[in-house]
Structures are given as C-alpha cells and as structure tokens.
Design goal:
It is built from two helices and three strands. The chain has a three-stranded antiparallel sheet, with helices on one face. By secondary structure, the protein is mainly α.
Length: about 140
C-alpha cells in the first residue's frame, strides 16, 4: 500500500509526458498557420484603412485649396503649407505626422494618378511593385 501511494505522488510517467507533447505539437501545427495567415491579412486591412484616412485628408485639402497636392509636394502638404498655396487650413492629419504602412515603409503618392486623380498606395511587405498575399500592393483605387 505504501509503494502505491508513493508511486502516485512521484508525478507523471515519461509516456504520459510524451503523449501530452505529441498532442501539443499537433495542435500547434494545425492552429499556427491559421494565426499567421490572419496576422498577414490584418496588416493588409490596416494599410487599406490608413489609405482611406489619408484619402479623406486629401479630399479636405482639395476642398480648401482647390486641388490635390502635386507629386512633388507629396503627403507633406497635409502637414505643412506648401509655398504659394491659398486656402490651406491644415494640418489635415490629427496625429500631426504621416503614418507609415504596417510594414514600416512610406506610402507612395502620385498626382496625377494612373487609376484616379491621385494614386495613394503601399507596396506591401516586400516594398516592391506587384506581389501576392501580404506582398501585394494596396491602393486607393481598390
């Protein structure tokens, strides 16, 4: 009887520990890829939301100034008044800085744009044109 109680108090057997480790490994292999897939998708959604926010600021700039900033003025025109600009009543961004995309790169701005009056876009995780998945470009024209 004493041996049985002592055996019970010693802890788990090696076989029990191995079974638990195998189960945890299987769970990680099934759940892990789904978590990383969602993380990549959330960065793309964040970029899209930031582009819409910048687009709203650009529209307000246009209402007050009468035009969108030129490519040379860039998004900086939303924070500091370009020279020889009438009607500027900024800054047009509440945080007083131009956000970077979720991958830490600058947003690209072109005026005139290929897809609209202006193009505002992120080059994705690879910071190069084109790409698929998380590396795809996210733009104001989407």
């Amino acid at each position: 009887m004493y041996n049985r109680i002592r055996h019970f108090l010693l802890g788990f057997t090696l076989l029990e520990l191995l079974v638990v480790l195998v189960i945890l490994g299987l769970l990680a292999s099934l759940v892990g890829p789904q978590v990383f897939k969602q993380l990549g998708g959330s960065k793309t959604k964040t970029a899209s939301l930031q582009i819409k926010e910048l687009g709203t600021a650009l529209d307000l700039y246009r209402l007050e100034v009468g035009r969108y900033p030129s490519s040379s003025e860039g998004l900086e025109a939303l924070l500091t008044r370009p020279t020889d600009t009438r009607g500027w009543n900024g800054p047009y961004l509440t945080k007083k800085n131009i956000p970077r995309d979720p991958w830490g790169n600058d947003y690209q701005y072109r005026n005139p744009g290929q897809y609209g009056e202006y193009d505002l876009f992120s080059l994705g995780s690879d910071n190069q044109e084109g790409g698929e998945g998380e590396a795809r470009d996210v733009g104001s024209w989407e």
